## 1
Amino acid sequence: MSIVTSVPPPTVPGAGVQIPLGRPSSVPGPFQFIGRSLRTLWANGKARIGLVILGLDILVALLAPLIAPHSPTATTFPPYLSPNATNWFGTTGNGQDVFSQMIYGARISLLVGIIAGAVATFVAVTIGLIAGYRPGIVDEVLSFATNLALVIPGLPLMFILAAYLKSRSVWTIVLVVAFTSWATGARVIRSQASTLRTREFVTSAQFSGERLLRVVFREILPNMTSLVAGSFFAAATAAVMAEASLEFLGLGDPNTVSWGTILYYAQQQNALLTGQWVMIFAPGLAIALLALSFTLVNFGVDALSNPRLREKS
Amino acid sequence: MSQVPNGQLASGKASSVPPVVVDRVSKIYRVRGPGSGTFTAVDNVSFTIPPGSAIGLVGASGSGKSTLAKMITGSERPTSGSIRFGELAVESLHANGLRKYHSRAQMIFQDPYAALNPLHTVAYTVTRPLQNFLNMSAAGARDRVHELLETVGLTPPGQYAAKLPHQLSGGQRQRVVIARALACDPELLVADEPVSMLDVSLRAGVLRLLADLRANRGLSLLYITHDLLGARVITDEILVLHKGKVVERGPTKYVLQNPKHEYTIQLLDAVATPFAAASR
Amino acid sequence: MTALLDVRGVNVVYEPNRGTRIWSVREVDLALKEGEFVGLVGESGCGKSTLGFALTRMLRAPARLENGVIQFDGVDMASLSGEALRRQRRNGFAIVLQSGMNALNPVRNVEDHFADILKAHARSGEHHPRAAVRRRGTELLGKVRLDPDVLAKFPFELSGGMRQRVSIALVLALEPRMIVFDEPTTALDVIVQKAVMKTIQELQQESGFTAILISHDLGVVLESTNRVMVMYAGRIVEDQPSKELVRGLHHPYTEALLGCYADPRAEEIHLAGIPGSPPDLSLPVSGCAFASRCPLVQDICWKVVPPLAPLGGGLAACHVRAPSDKVPGATAVAAKVAAGKVAQT
């Protein structure tokens, strides 16, 4: 009996696949990863629009002191003015410039949206990964908690929490929003982790002597990055809307300037009756556009993980 | 390639690997939903893997061979019976004990496309067991990694070390899986259908590699397959499994030439080869 | 007899993203007569499944048919689309997929599946009352060796082999004249594979439809078919009657492939592999694609693509084994190699 084989492949031109050398070391570095992701996102039509809007919002928020013509809180103008040369969006009932408020308001909306989204995603990933990776009692307990959080209506819970909490600051809102919106992400991440857990490369890692945390964070999580990114953008969208809702209902800090508080004051000061439709329209549109931009970028994130959705440019 | 006698290395020395003794092992799963409450995957199976030998577990899907493999490597626990690796009781290993056992008993998986993390390079995959079990640093392990890649036929090793799985063919990936399994010089290799997902032209190479490893290192090999040709080429003795029970066992060549149980006959009959077709 | 399926110059290109074009099928010509059972054999990436999909117009973006004529019973298939193509699927050609058993709707029973397919492809004015559906269903299930009580079952109540037989029976409902079987048994248990293949073979002999069996397993193909085509790197490199493939001289790739099989019961076993790997199909390949791995390679092999030329009872694309008159110098090269071999022995 014989097994006849030859030496490894001859390197004749045209023979075999000429494979270019890949990246060194293990999981690609964060900057290369972000760079590559941004390029793929930009290639997707919908994501590109989202990125543009988001980019503009971030720019406005960062450069607020330079762009805003006046101080947002100074009550130096005559109240209830319609849009005019000095006050492009008119003034509030307290004599504040609405345009400047809009510009500074971008900061809060973005801040809350991104940070609350990030915290919610962090909680979702932690709970989802642990529940997905450890079947049995751990999974049962965490899944039950997730389902409970899903079933409780988010907005009313937010209202109650915000109403009862002593401090009224932006951070309260961030925490409240994050606390109520982690459940959907956790559920999705749990299923994906549960599927990945049974994949052979995870078993293989265990045979390589990897410990639990290493398997979860270096084997499973890197294969779920687009899912996590998608969860983040979804959570950020929800956070922006939630923040606006809380502020609008007066459950936020009335002294901060955000798009939600503009709407709050517009409502308090009967902007519709005074004909100041810009004061209602502008913040509403801005909130909607920011939320939309996150959703549009999410389309691109889908394309990151599913190459078939990538558009050919 | 000459047949290496049981337990002897190609150099003539006797293998110092402990024997694996599987004693009356059963695995019964509880089934939820309609129908009966239990499913017996493995039913009272006993056999021994003598030091340095190659044993084949042969059967179709559902025969229990994969479950048995998982129990022998400690990934699953038997419902009853015992599995001893020398003095070690495998069925009662937990956490740290299990980890240490993995440095001595390794597994080669069926699907080369799923057994490697798509984001890790070859070097990373092969280095990890060295870091975990032998406490080598990544830099210190580099020479050993190159040596392992050469052993499995991936030369020049420097070129392959930096590659990612999607840049490799099925046969090359399987060699990486084998290199990883060999990293800590295991005493037992459990190969679960290692070539069934490879093209036929690639199988001989991988089979030869496994046969050489066994002859040169004296490790014990448990070869699990439904492919009787592979079993014939690599193993000394086979056990035919059907619905969790051993229905026939004996020296490989003898069993294949003189099958007695009807299931073995069915299995042989199902292996269509071009030469068999010609003689019809 | 005129060919039922006449294929000329078919090329399929696959473009997963901008800048990459992979030619999965290159310049394929073949002709099938009514009632033939042909096997299409090759390893991963040779293009056999892609060709099967191209022939039945099942290609989806980013793969597409580029050039080529596909004539089915005189009708140019490549130009059909939409409703005309759909109508051609009745009484025309059909495909049974590797995971066809997973294509069954899990919440409908087998009888509903039959009703659905008969209704979808009914000619105008045709009605299918339940009784007729049941009768036809029983008849078709019988053809695939299943009992009539399977009609009432749901897919999850059936084994993999049974589900694959059901999907074949559903295809038969359309009375196709040609069926392409794309690895129909690969996903099944090895013993069930044998039984299902036997049924397919008997079915083909009884019903007389033309069949193409696509498989990576040469043994399965040689057992069931009467003609075999071997594919490598997107081209057909050999086309022989099945019985002749295990004897005599053949294309070096075919011979190498045969060397990878052996009877496990034989006294002495010689098992071989094929060193090297297939060429990168995203690059143009000059000359014979097998040249880098061929033990008989000559200078001409690197430069000129060998056309299919007579060898034994069929055709082969090899300058050395089957030199073609159309290639200048090929005959001389082949003679030289043959003489060299004679001198060695």
Note: The longest strand of chain C covers residues 22-32.
## 2
Amino acid sequence: MVHGLDTVGTASEAVSPEDTAGFERFIAPINYIVVVFSSVALVIASFVLSYSVASRYFFHFSTDWQDEFSVFLIVGAVFMSSAAVQARRGHVAIEVVSHMMPPRANHIRLFLVDVASLIFCAYFCWKSWLLLHEAIVEGFRTGSTWQPPLWIPYSLMTCGMLLLSIQLLLQVANHMARWKKPV
Amino acid sequence: MSILSIGLLYGGSTLLVMFAGMPIAFALGAVATIFMIAFMPSSSVDTITQNVYEEMASITLLSIPLFILKGSAIGRSRAGQDLYGALHAWLHRIPGGLGIANVFACALFAAMAGSSPATCSAIGSAGIPEMRKHGYSGGFAAGIIAAGGTLGILLPPSITMILYAVAAEQSLGRLFLAAIGPALLLVALFTVYAMWRFRREYVHAKAAYEKSGTYSEILRVDELSLRDKFALLPRVLPFIVLLTGVMIALYGGFATPSETAGLGAVLALILIAVIYSVWSPRDLEPILVATLRESTMLMLIIGMSLLYSYVMSYLHISQSTAEWIVSLHLSRWVLLTTILLMVVVLGFFLPPVSIILMTAPIILPPLRAAEFDLIWFGVIMTIVMEMGLIHPPVGLNIFVINNIAPDIPLRDVMWGVLPFVGLMILGVVILCFVPGIATWFSDLVMGPAIVSK
């Protein structure tokens, strides 16, 4: 089924097999901290934009940094929390076939899907790192009057994709551990 | 390879990985990346992440998480129930008033929260039990809520409209204003239907009572005092005035969409803190976590969809398809009907956000060539996608309803919803004949469009 914009909570991932439990213990708190910071970032962005309306309306200040500052906060929050969302399988997919396949084939399908997602995210992460590196070396800045350095959002994007790749690696490892020890 | 075969391969592989169950965001990104590596110069592959970042770093798109924050703050407070209770107290004397109160509550809530499933669960969790207690059939009650909830993607601040504005390069303020008239039209259609259906169920119940003495709750007339009418207003009015009034004023041009979104989120957080004392970190946590989860999921889909359509246009797939459609010389209305049918079919599988971003580069040029007003079309397309949220097989709202009222059989829900799908089709037809319903209000507020092509 397609779950579009639902806020209904998705079930959390089943308890991971022992082989990967230590790994899980390591990444779960990181995800929690990231979620807290990202939430705060969204709220700060809301206040910054409200301030921008107020300052323009009441004091006739021109707004220069508010938009970009909010962009950095929100883009950062989105990329950084993508691993936490993946941990709860919150990235929506079309699940029509899962109802038509026998359980064993379905497990293989899920495994392949996770491997493919992992490869894509790892590649994207690597490319983000190259971009970040270039931005630091060349000192890229945005084209606005405020001119903040671009390594700030790029590093958030790279870190977020790295976390997401690690999360996917963990889920792939979980699949394999489950195969070794059939329940 | 010819453009045709690349195009077919592109579409085919996308369908394959999506139906294999790969998350939509990663599926779109992966297909786009593979085709970039295979068919595009390596220099463009190197800028892939920069591309995604620059598409996503648009301040208009980033208003989406803030609108979601505003919606989930309101959706997770008691505002929905109170709004519904207040409307019920005022409308209960009208035949079918309870159903009408639900339609209105959905519309008002949708305008505050901007999310269709959130509207369904907030109004439905109070409204469905109440309607059933009063003898409404399960399917009818579910239909009202499911259909009312879809107004969430039509009324401002609708996330799908934001994406359409970005994809079609149209003014978001104008688009938001243009949606108001058609939304009121749908509310009117739903209301008339609710009254008629109530009348029918009432007559049936009355006949059954006179014949066999089986009493139905639908025959009972509620008596609510003047006090009931005013009891909830102090809690409800601030929400309506601040969140719809202020927002509509801002869309008129005082603030950018993202500023409106930020201010809306702040106002919503302040209102739930003051009125419902939701302010401690523990109270706010579920709101923020839900916001983050939904925003991240959506923004990644949006970023990857934009990469996907960038590759599609770089490889001339979208242009060629669009030119091909234009060269068919279909009559205007055949073209429109075909495109809308395609949107309906896509709506079986994909959420509205991906439909807009993936199809816009293909369907908008032919529509522009056929001299359709793209603001008007945005409204029409949104209503058609609203239908996708409630029609079987996969209407999202149906499952939300199933969640909050599990005792109504899914079959009844689906049958209850179908008449509303019909009403929406009727709405689309009316808008085709009288486009002024959409364009009149935006032209009034913002002045006539400067040839909005």
Note: Chain A touches chain B through 63 residues (CB under 8 Å).
